[in-house]
Amino acid sequence: MTSSPELSFAASVADAVREQALHYFRSDLKVDDKADSSPVTVADREIEAFMRQEIAKRFPEDGIFGEEQAATQLDARDIWVVDPIDGTKSFVSGHPLFGNLIARLRDGAPYLGQIDMPALGDRWQGQKGQPSTFNGQVCKTSGCTDLAEARAYTTDPELFFGETRPVYEALREAVHLLRFGGDCYNYGLLASGYCDMVLEIGLQPYDYLPTVQIIEGAGGVITDWSGAPLGLTSKGDVLASATPELHAAMLARIAACRQPA
Questions:
Q1: Distance (Å, rounded) from C-alpha 261 to C-alpha 258?
Q2: Fold of 5-130
Q3: Confidence band (pLDDT; 50, 70, 90) for 248?
Q4: How far apart are CA 48 and CA 66, in angstroms?
Q5: Phi/psi at 203 (nearest 5 deg)?
Q6: Which of 6, 157, 199, 218 is the most exposed, fewest CB within 10 Å of its CB?
Q7: Whole-prediction pTM
Q8: Mean pLDDT of 19-41
Q9: How many Å apart are CA 237 and CA 168, to the nearest integer?
Q10: pLDDT higher than 90, residue 261
Q11: Which residues pair with 137 in a beta bridge?
Q12: Residue 189 in 3-state DSSP?
């Protein structure tokens, strides 16, 4: 596939980030806890600073929204969204399923997305109007339309509690296979047809926006739990599916769970 200038730029940034991430991976790394008790390391901070620097040099008029630093120029037409290490808990515990994420929004909507897995050498890319790719080759979702046959992922079932617990139970009861963990890697697996659905709760924009064009360009669907498009102000409860039929079926179950008693 011929890459656009923006995707080529994203790839070049990820190439450099791989070296930075692997320098720190499985090393004697100090781990701090943020206000929400999630872990953060010098690797997270250094990688985001590098990504911001590269974006500012190449696209000085664009805004930047990231995890570790304050957002800039959010009134710009084009905004880059970056996550230096998605899956920091995996990163600090020596598990290779951590990723580097980058998206570009245009007029508030995801236009470009990239998932890069430094320890695995895997990369998914997507851009509006183009087929998504896995390591440079076109990838497609599975085509699964039946919840009873679906292979699903959610990162952590313990994140579903209180009034949202029935949503998790509906997923568990409906699908053929349910697995846990994976963070951003699950969306790549979905885009390549290895799983059929990803359900997550309480994500941040830098967690989900880089995945949107990858999923859509592979033939899948990704929205919030009400079926609305994802943007910077979305709540962060995300459903991604291999097909519109599968997506509609799970959205219906979610809606049923959230009806007043």
A1: 9
A2: Fructose-1,6-Bisphosphatase; Chain A, domain 1 (3.30.540)
A3: very high
A4: 7
A5: -75, 165
A6: 157
A7: 0.94
A8: 81
A9: 12
A10: no
A11: 134
A12: helix
